[in-house]
């Protein structure tokens, strides 16, 4: 598609579109499809979902299916579908991005769920409007949040309040399940960025488990990211969690092993630096 | 967000990688039940999410292969238990023998009903199967995306949809095969009945098009193998070839029948209808994939196969279409031929030969037509005929005038022919360029084959420009001029035309026969068409006329200022100073051997004085120029007085009569001799000749003009015959009277007419001389630039350079080259066969 008009004009038009999509998502107006997952209910639009995901397309197109008849898609909360991942996926479909959101640990009762708020930033970067996502601390009902004292605010905007790797792994898994290639790429990209800092965390170990159970062996992108992280920080091989995983998870062990061998070959042939 | 969920999120159930085996069976059971529901059309309660999840889980546990095989087995079983029996029932012995053996005696209606019933059964089974397979493929989408893709197996859909091909189309179900002892597969029957239905429709029956369309789209959805290679659709590999064969046969027969029973016109319309039908059939009943192929069949069977036979049909073929202006036939014909032959050869050749034939016919008709009565000509005045001198009846035309009329007739006919074919070209041939150039060539050919075309075209223009004054509107003149230009385009020997046009134009200008702006318009058009060099002389002539008119005015002022009343009273001088090179040789009096005599023509003293006065005036500012009087080209207005005839008391003769008589310059000289004669005296022809020194031939014409033509018979000739002889004597006609005051003595020289054979030979000779010079100039120009050239190269360059003017004969070029070699403009290159070098 070709755009006419100046860069500013393009940005403005683009903002307008993004703003309207945001409104549609927030208000659920004109919704013709309901997506449920656990207790979450999303009023969404076939035009947006079906055109981006073959999964939704098939579910809505053939009138023989219950989903097409009722206009409701009910996701069971079971691997690879996780409520937070569904939430972020829905967000992504309307915003082309999803906010930072740490995954609640299994067994934790999480309170004060953070709510993403997208702010359209007018500074442009490579001709695209960049959406900065900032996290607003949501106080528990009845408790006020003093912004100055709030830990998350103190860390500054734009910085992850805490590690987020498991979230990305789950988003990746559901993107694979729902067949949304763009989201897969985005999740891997975010994961790779964050793992630089958070490789030595429980979040990483958790993400590692998720990646190796939620998608098939042939779905390589996220597995490669995990193996790369282990390879770049080989001290991880000393950690108890990783050792445990290697012992119990043959595909992971195999991948790591192959990776070490590959490096060795590259070093022998003197191509290692080039490859890096 | 629409609804706020409560803030508690349950822990996700973690799948256990090691429980693979136990998880497969429940998932498969779920899927298997779903497959059954789908086949029995009970799918309303199926949840896509659940089924998709089940297949996803199986793939995640790496059991894709198992699932794939299970689904395939299930479908095969279902197919043989539920679908095949349904089809087997349809294949009755009757149907099979009807479709394959085609026994005579069954009515089309019966056949149609049976065929359609069978096809409906196939279609319904197919649609059920297709729909189910689509749904199953949806559910198993993840399996296809991962396991199937990686193991390079056909997709679930391809593998299951192919069951229809393997077990139904390529199979003979039921007992018909053994009972009829006939080897067949169901596909054979399907094709046979479908083709039968199509042929029924071609014969005018109504069939269920939708049904056929369903069947063909089924064949388009099925492939030779489960790999589903695009080119291997069953429609393309099996059905279409049979369809094309069948259609070929059908149209072959139909064409033979048309050739025997119909005429070309019917054939054209029929073929056009068939083409439209076949196109529509592809759109509505078969497949657009076949559109071009079936069009080719109709084109080759109905158009190309017997094209020449149809075109040659007596009374309705191409010739008849052209001759009778059957525009619609020709339009259709053009469209049809364009389909099969981009060069349109058959149409082109016939058109060309028809143009040629009709063109030559015009010439033939011309020879056979009697132009001796003016009615055959129209517009030419009888008076002009009279001075031919050798005709007894005033109403008949002289030979020359007849020729002129023929010329105009020829041009008119050629233009009409051109109009006719132009019209065909516009209306029927879609302004086709190939045909245009072919027809143009034929026109040029026959026009140039006629050796008088250049002269005739110029005469035609002459006639129209003169008549332009006589009441044609400007728009009408415009159309005529345009047509003249069109003809001009076809002329090859443009230098000949130029020569004639110059001659005719000169006469028009000198005698004020046409309007200057129309003349200029014409020349402007020629200039646009043929370039500056072509019209240079004509423009020079116009310039001379303008300058002359100014000169005349100035001279008149000059005389007045001199106050020489005597001079201005005797005569008024209207002078045309003509530049030698612009004007044609005969107008300039350079044609005859009597040139010397002409210069010595003796003028009356009064005129002589006038001439000398003008000489003096003219040379005052232009010393060194030479002025020659061209007495043969001028005219004079003479005021003459005829005194009353004594004894006549009534009628016009009883009064003094004053007339203004317009005669040629020679006429004036002769008449002035009679001023000095006493009453009753006469002059013989020889005496007049001696006194004036006018060339004999000119004098004869002059005398005829003033002593024979009744309108201007101011002299009485003895004996009063219709022709002038050297022995005749002339005297003053005192009894002359005329109804008009202004009288114009008809002058032969003012008439543009076709040349006689002798004249023409001379014209050609002159033209050849000019051509020699032009070729010389071209050769020198080329050699000067190229320095060295071979004989053939030089010859071809000369022809190219001169193409716009005329087509030089090769022998003439050769002769000129030899001449230039002798004159040392160039030399032969030594050691090379016929090559020349320019000598500076």
User: How many discrete domains of chain B?
Assistant: 5
Distance between the termini of chain B: 99 Å
Structural class of chain B: mainly alpha
Number of helices in the DSSP assignment of chain B: 34
Strand segment count of chain A: 5
CATH architecture of the largest domain in chain B: Up-down Bundle
Note the beta-strand portion of chain A.
5-15%
The major β-sheet of chain B equals: 3 strands, mixed
Task: Indicate the low-confidence ranges of chain A by residue numbers.
Answer: 106-160
Q: Enumerate how many helices of chain A there are, as a single number.
A: 13
Q: What's the rounded overall pLDDT mean of chain A?
A: 78
Which two protein chains have the largest interface (Cβ within 8 Å of the partner's Cβ), and how many residues from each?
A: A-B, 49 and 38 residues
Shape of chain B: elongated
Which overall shape of chain A is indicated by the principal axes computed on the Cα atoms? globular
Keywords (chain B): Isopeptide bond, Ubl conjugation
InterPro entries (chain B): Cullin, Cullin-like_AB, Cullin_CS, Cullin_homology, Cullin_homology_sf, Cullin_N, Cullin_neddylation_domain, Cullin_repeat-like_dom_sf
Domain Cullin family profile (chain B): 452-707
GO molecular function (chain B): ubiquitin protein ligase binding
Please characterize this protein's 3D structure.
The complex is a heterodimer of chains A (276) and B (840). Chain A contains 13 helices and five strands. With 276 residues, chain A is of the alpha+beta class. Chain A has one domain. In chain A, a hairpin with a 2-residue loop joins strand 1 (33-37) and strand 2. In chain A, helix 1 (7-27) runs antiparallel to helix 5 and helix 8 packs parallel to helix 10 (221-232). Mean pLDDT of chain A is 78; it is low at 106-160. The longest helix of chain B has 32 residues, at 108-139. A three-stranded mixed β-sheet of chain B has the order 1-2-6. In chain B, strands 3-5-4 form a three-stranded antiparallel β-sheet. In chain B, helix 2 packs parallel to helix 6 and helix 22 runs parallel beside helix 24. The model of chain B is unreliable at 1-10, 375-395 and 590-598 (pLDDT under 50). Chain B has five domains: 17-232, Cullin Repeats (5 helical Cullin repeat like, Up-down Bundle), CATH 1.20.1310; 246-337, no CATH class; 338-532, no CATH class; 635-750, 2-Layer Sandwich (Ribosomal Protein S5, domain 2), CATH 3.30.230; 757-838, Orthogonal Bundle (Arc Repressor Mutant, subunit A). With 840 residues, chain B is mainly α. In chain B, 63% of the residues lie in helices and 5% in strands. Chain A binds chain B through residues 25-26, 28, 31, 38-43, 54-55, 58-59, 62, 64-69, 73-80, 82-84, 104, 106-107, 109-113, 177, 179, 213-218, 249, and chain B through 1-3, 5-15, 17, 38, 43-50, 52-53, 56, 59-60, 62, 134-135, 138, 141-142, 145-146, 150. Chain B: Residues 452-707 form the Cullin family profile domain. Chain B: Keywords: Isopeptide bond, Ubl conjugation. Chain B: One of its GO terms (molecular function) is ubiquitin protein ligase binding. Chain B: It comes from Bombardia bombarda.
């Amino acid at each position: 598609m070709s755009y006419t008009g100046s860069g500013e004009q393009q940005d403005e038009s683009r903002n307008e579109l993004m703003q309207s999509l945001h409104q549609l998502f927030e208000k659920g107006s004109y919704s013709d499809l309901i997506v449920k997952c656990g207790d979450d209910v999303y009023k969404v639009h076939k035009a947006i979902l079906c055109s981006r995901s073959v999964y939704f397309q098939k579910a809505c197109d053939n009138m023989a299916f219950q989903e097409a008849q009722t206009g409701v898609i009910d996701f069971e909360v079971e691997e690879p579908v996780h409520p937070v991942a569904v939430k972020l996926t829905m967000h992504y479909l309307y915003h082309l991005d999803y906010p930072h959101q740490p995954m609640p640990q299994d067994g934790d009762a999480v309170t004060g769920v953070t709510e993403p708020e997208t702010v359209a930033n007018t500074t442009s970067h490579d001709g695209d409007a960049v959406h900065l996502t900032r996290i607003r601390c949501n106080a528990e009902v009845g408790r006020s949040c003093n912004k100055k004292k709030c830990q998350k605010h103190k860390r500054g905007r734009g910085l992850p309040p805490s590690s987020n790797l498991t979230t990305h792994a789950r988003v990746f898994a559901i993107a694979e399940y729902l067949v949304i290639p763009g989201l897969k790429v985005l999740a891997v990209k975010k994961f790779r960025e964050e793992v630089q800092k958070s490789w030595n965390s429980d979040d990483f170990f958790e993400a590692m488990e998720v990646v190796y159970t939620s998608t098939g062996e042939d779905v390589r992108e996220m597995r490669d990211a995990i193996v790369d992280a282990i390879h770049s920080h080989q001290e991880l091989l000393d950690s108890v969690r990783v050792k445990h995983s290697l012992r119990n998870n043959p595909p992971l062990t195999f991948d790591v092993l192959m990776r070490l061998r590959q490096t060795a070959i590259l070093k022998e042939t003197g191509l290692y630096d080039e490859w890096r | 967000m629409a609804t706020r969920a409560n803030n508690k999120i349950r822990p996700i159930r973690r799948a256990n990688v090691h429980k693979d085996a136990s998880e497969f069976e429940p998932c498969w059971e779920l899927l298997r039940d779903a497959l059954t529901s789908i086949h029995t059309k009970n799918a309303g309660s199926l949840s896509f999410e659940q089924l998709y999840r089940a297949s996803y889980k199986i793939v995640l546990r790496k059991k894709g292969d198992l699932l794939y095989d299970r689904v395939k087995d299930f479908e095969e079983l279902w197919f043989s238990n539920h679908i095949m029996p349904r089809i087997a029932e349809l294949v009755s012995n009757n149907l099979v023998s009807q479709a394959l053996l085609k026994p005579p005696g069954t009515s089309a209606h019966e056949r149609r009903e049976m065929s359609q019933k069978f096809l409906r059964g196939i279609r319904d089974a197919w649609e059920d199967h297709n729909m189910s397979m689509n749904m199953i493929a949806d559910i198993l989408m993840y399996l296809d995306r991962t396991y199937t893709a990686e193991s390079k197996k056909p997709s679930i859909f391809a593998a299951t949809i192919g069951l229809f091909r393997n077990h139904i189309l390529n199979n003979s179900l039921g007992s018909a095969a053994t009972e009829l002892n006939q080897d067949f597969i169901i596909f054979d029957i399907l094709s046979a009945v479908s083709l039968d239905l199509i042929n029924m429709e071609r014969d005018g029956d109504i069939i269920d098009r939708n049904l056929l369309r369903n069947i063909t789209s089924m064949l388009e959805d099925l492939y030779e193998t489960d790999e589903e290679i695009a080119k291997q659709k069953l429609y393309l590999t099996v059905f279409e070839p049979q369809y094309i064969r069948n259609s070929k046969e059908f149209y072959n027969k139909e064409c033979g029948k048309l050739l025997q029973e119909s005429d070309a016109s019917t054939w054209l319309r029929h073929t056009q209808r068939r083409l439209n039908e076949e196109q529509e059939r592809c759109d509505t009943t078969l497949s657009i994939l076949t559109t071009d192929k079936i069009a080719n069949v109709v084109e080759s069977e109905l158009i190309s196969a017997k094209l020449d036979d149809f075109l040659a049909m007596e009374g309705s073929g191409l010739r008849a279409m052209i001759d009778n202006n059957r525009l619609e036939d020709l339009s259709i014909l053009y469209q049809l031929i364009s389909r099969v032959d981009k060069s349109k050869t058959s149409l082109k050749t016939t058109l060309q030969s028809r143009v040629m034939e009709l063109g030559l016919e015009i010439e033939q008709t011309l020879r056979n037509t009697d132009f001796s009565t003016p009615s055959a000509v129209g517009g030419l005045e009888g008076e002009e005929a009279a001075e031919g001198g050798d005709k007894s009846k005033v109403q008949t035309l002289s030979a020359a005038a007849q020729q002129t009329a023929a010329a105009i007739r020829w041009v008119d006919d050629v233009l009409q022919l051109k109009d006719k074919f132009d019209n065909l070209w516009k209306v029927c041939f879609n302004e086709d360029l190939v045909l245009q150039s072919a027809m143009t060539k034929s026109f040029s050919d026959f026009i140039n084959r006629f050796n008088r075309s250049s002269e005739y075209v110029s005469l035609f223009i002459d006639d129209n420009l003169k008549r332009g004054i006589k009441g044609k509107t400007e728009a009408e003149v415009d159309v005529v001029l345009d047509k003249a230009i069109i003809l001009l385009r076809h002329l090859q020997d443009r230098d000949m035309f130029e020569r004639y046009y110059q001659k005719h134009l000169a006469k028009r200008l000198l005698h004020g026969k046409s309007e200057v702006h129309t003349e200029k318009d014409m020349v402007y058009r020629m200039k646009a068409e043929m370039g500056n060099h072509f019209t240079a002389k004509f423009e020079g002539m116009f310039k001379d006329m303008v300058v002359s008119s100014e000169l005349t005015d100035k001279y008149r002022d000059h005389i007045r200022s001199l106050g020489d009343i005597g001079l201005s009273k005797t005569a008024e001088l209207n002078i045309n100073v003509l530049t030698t090179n612009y004007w044609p040789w005969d107008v300039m009096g350079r044609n005859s051997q009597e040139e010397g005599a002409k210069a010595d023509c003796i003028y009356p003293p009064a005129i002589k004085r006038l001439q000398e006065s003008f000489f003096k005036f003219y040379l005052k500012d232009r010393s060194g120029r030479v002025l020659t009087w061209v007495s043969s080209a001028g005219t004079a207005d003479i005021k003459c007085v005829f005194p009353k005839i004594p004894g006549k008391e009534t009628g016009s003769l009883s009064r003094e009569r004053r007339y203004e008589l317009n005669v040629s310059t020679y006429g004036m000289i002769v008449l002035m001799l009679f001023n000095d004669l006493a009453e009753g005296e006469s002059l013989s022809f020889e005496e007049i000749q001696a006194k004036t020194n006018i060339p004999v031939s000119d004098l004869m014409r002059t005398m005829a003009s003033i002593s024979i033509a009744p309108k201007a018979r101011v002299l009485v000739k003895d004996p009063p015959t219709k022709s002038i002889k050297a022995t005749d004597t002339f005297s003053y006609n005192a009894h002359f009277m005329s109804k008009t005051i202004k009288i114009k003595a008809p002058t032969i020289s003012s008439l543009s007419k076709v040349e006689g054979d002798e004249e023409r030979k001379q014209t050609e000779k002159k033209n050849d001389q000019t051509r020699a010079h032009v070729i010389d100039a071209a050769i020198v120009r080329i050699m000067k630039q190229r320095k060295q050239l071979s004989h053939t190269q030089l010859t071809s360059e000369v022809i190219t350079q001169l193409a716009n003017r005329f087509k030089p004969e090769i022998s003439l070029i050769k002769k000129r080259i030899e001449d230039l070699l002798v004159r040392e403009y160039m030399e032969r290159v030594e050691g090379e066969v016929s090559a020349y070098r320019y000598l500076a």
